[in-house]
Amino acid sequence: MTGSDARVGDLDERTVLAHILDRVGPTGALLGPGDDAAVLAAPGGRIVASVDTLVHGPDFRTAWTDGFSLGWKAAAVNLADIAAMGARPTSLLVALAMPPETTLGEVGAIADGLRAACAELAPGCAVDGGDLAVSDTLTVAVTALGVLEGSGPVTRSGARDGDVLAVSGRLGPAARGLSLLFERFRDGAGRPIPPRTADLTADERGDLDAQLRPRPPIADGRRAAEAGATAMMDVSDGLLLDAARMARASSVTLDIDSAALGGDASTALTGGEDHALLATFPAGVRLPGSFAAIGRVREGAAPGVLVDGEEPRGRGGWDPYQDWDRGRG
Ligand SMILES: Nc1ncnc2c1ncn2[C@@H]1O[C@H](COP(=O)(O)OP(=O)(O)OP(=O)(O)O)[C@@H](O)[C@H]1O
Ligand SMILES: Cc1ncc(C[n+]2csc(CCOP(=O)(O)O)c2C)c(N)n1
Ligand SMILES: [Mg+2]
């Protein structure tokens, strides 16, 4: 038996891989992990594929999160990209690059988190393969695959004048959770320290949970496609920044009604990482699932986003190349 405290640097690849494969559980693939590639059944004949990487430093800090949450988040952010196309997620391929000090317990927890997020957010989706590497920088790169059944894909470019702009999922909690970490859980030198959740209010704990273990409304992606959504994307970087991408792709103006964004509209507008689904629907369509209207689509001389009819200032969200400050952690 290899104990959870064993360090991957003291083990061999086969042992580490076996530890993961024991945990990621049964898959619906024609051929799951173990060969050169997985073989997947694609009932609709159309597969959706996407990749998203979590890198220690700009995307997470080990002092602020744990293996389970990291695995969960790596799955959730990828499932959201598949859902945002109107597809049903079926498979994840997980590339794990880790420092030699990483313990087998941590590796197992990452695998547990991946599996739990799939089970809760996208039942039927499983880890069907991956890769292991050694690196000074802990990195989790996940490729997600999904299938289109019937309607879809729903792209970013289909929004039309007169459509309703709607959101399913939350906007703001994950960003508030990140602010808490930066503001309250660093030492005198600015280095991240583990969050003491006992010091937090229930709302703050909820925000922290949203940052570390986001719960995007994955099933609403298919529902939106079936209801006739004209455009869709997940909000990863910030509503203003991501909506501007949809506006440009569709050559329209998206006019957001700030009163529809709840009490903390300013965080809802610029905070990312909740991975809510932003979609447009023809006027008169009954909004599916948890979608709620937050504005409307107008023809615009120059494509872009308005808030209550006015042009917002600032970039409106996270840009890794502009916003990551190595010194801040
Ligand atoms: N290195 C790359 N090579 C080819 N295409 C890329 C590369 N990086 C990004 N893209 C493509 O550019 C588009 C935008 O990429 P991005 O990672 O910002 O995706 P997103 O969905 O906007 O963000 P998120 O993954 O946070 O939801 C995607 O279609 C993506 O596939
Ligand atoms: C330690 C730490 N520093 C900063 C952030 C903020 N952050 C990282 S990725 C991202 C948006 C989605 O990224 P992508 O578009 O690459 O998927 C945001 C807002 C964080 N989560 N943790
Ligand atoms: Mg996306």
Task: Summarize this structure as a short list of keywords or feature phrases.
alpha+beta; binds thiamin phosphate; binds magnesium ion; Phosphoribosyl-aminoimidazole Synthetase, Chain A, domain 2; 60s Ribosomal Protein L30, Chain: A; six-stranded mixed sheet; binds adenosine-5'-triphosphate; 329 residues; globular; four-stranded mixed sheet
Question: What's the level 1 CATH class of the largest domain?
Answer: Alpha Beta
CATH architecture title of the largest domain? Alpha-Beta Complex
Uncertain stretches: none
What would the principal axes of the Cα set say about the shape? globular
Structural class: alpha+beta
Strands in their spatial order, largest beta sheet:
6-8-5-9-7-10
Fold-level CATH name of the largest domain: Phosphoribosyl-aminoimidazole Synthetase, Chain A, domain 2
Ligand inventory reads: adenosine-5'-triphosphate, thiamin phosphate, magnesium ion
Q: Give the overall average pLDDT.
A: 94
- What fraction strand? 15-25%
What is the distance, rounded to the nearest whole angstrom, between the alpha carbons of the first and last residues?
37 Å
Q: In CATH, what is the homologous superfamily of the largest domain?
A: PurM-like C-terminal domain
Helix content: 25-40%
- Total DSSP E strands: 10
Report the sheet with the most strands, covering strand number, pairing sense and barrel closure: 6 strands, mixed
The radius of gyration is 20 Å
Number of domains: 2
| Topology pattern, helix = H, strand = E | HEHEHEEEHHHEHEHEEEH
